[in-house]
Specification:
The strands form 3 sheets. This protein has a 5-stranded parallel beta sheet with strand order 2-3-1-4-5, with helices on both faces. Strands 6-7 form a two-stranded parallel sheet. By secondary structure, the chain is of the alpha/beta class. About 3% of the residues have low confidence. Helix content is 42%, strand content 12%. Helix 7 links the parallel strand 4 and strand 5.
Amino acid sequence: MKIKITIFLLSILLLVSVFYNIKPDTSGTWFISFPNANTRPTYDSFHHIRQAQELATGKGIKVGIIGKYFGYASNENLYAGGKDFTGNKEAFETIAEHGLWMATTLKEISPDVEIYALNARDKNRKNEAKAIIEAINWAVENDIDILTYSAEAFSHEYKEEINKAVRKAIDKGIVTTFIHYDAQENILPTGFFPNSPKTYAREADVNIFHFDYNVLMLFKYENYLKSGRKTGNNIGAHPYFSNSSMSPVLAGIIAMMKEMNNDLTPEEYKKILVETSKKINFQGYEVNHVVDAPAAIRYLLKETDTKE
């Protein structure tokens, strides 16, 4: 009898615990439900990331992320190192948003890369340009292999000075995967679109899937629901749209390539990515240069076998 009473009391306590720990917050949105969540396309669907990870994981490759909001102090296990170039300690150490999201995506693609958080974005464009140049120079001095940048296009007023720093980095063998940066030396990604943005001086080099499911802005999702899950021609209205993630995704793939062979020039990595890319049909139009990660890695493996 005592055992039954004990079990009954424990059951009541469990129910009380569940109620107080998971009861919904009726004051606002308390859950998000996704139709077809387990069948939606991902980076793996188009770029075959898991197949690539059977060949390489980016081990020993250093990738610098030029950005801000890394949450460096509370995510030290994610980073191999980092530096603040703006004097904004909070944007580097405390706030854990955009930079952290980029690092998380990079690790998802290439889990063994060494990530360096380079805090260089600033609201003042003059200060930002100075910080970005310093970050690039630091990358050269510290033997970084790949640099990413995921923000708006560089200010025209300061672009030439940034160009000089980028060229110096590329001459030292650093591969850059900056979005919205159409310098010829950069490996320029764009999304799954039929054409590159008209603002670019040239066509983008490769196409990277432009949705990232690691972060969901609730206000964007609420607007998405209000529209009846319709975005029309405004694909940016999709809550998971992400131009930013194209740079770290591409960097992660290149890191796997560099694990196979870290002695090629940035231009040679670009050439391999383009030659091994695929043309696909996406939402009724053709996308010409979709990166195929395992194909790019196997290309390097074949080259190694031939030389041996």
